[in-house]
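Dear Dr. H.,

I hope your travels went smoothly. While you were away I took the liberty of generating a structure for the chain from your last submission, since the lab meeting agenda had it listed for discussion. I wanted you to have the full record in hand beforehand rather than looking at slides cold. The sequence, exactly as received, is reproduced here:
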Amino acid sequence: MSGCTTVGPNFKTPPAPAVASYTRAPLPAGTASAPGSMGGAQRFGATLTVAPDWWRQFGSARLDDLVQQALRNSPTLAAAEATLRQAQQTYAAQAGSTLYPTVNGKLGVSRNAFSGSSFGQNTGSTNIF
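The corresponding predicted structure, in token form, is as follows:
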């Protein structure tokens, strides 16, 4: 994917379009109403602010409970940063084991007995113990 984003050495970001709006005509102030439940007209307010607890406007106790549960169980930014630091330290500890050369060694002892006939001698039986 990095090949798709490669640009030449003389690339300059183009300026933003000098327009006040991205639509040719202004947006309507609202929508038409429709028959039935929840069919009331909606109004658009680009400059209006949204309440921090906007979900309460639905009047649903179940939704309120779910949002409160989510907020209680959601990690704080400090907890997320602590988790990130822990992951970085774990990675550093594991990566450190591959940064240095390793040395392995093995020692062993054995007793061997050679037949004299392999060297051209006939010595008979030999007890190595």
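Two observations you may find useful: The chain has a mean pLDDT of 82. Helices lie at 61-73, 77-96.

With kind regards,
E. W.
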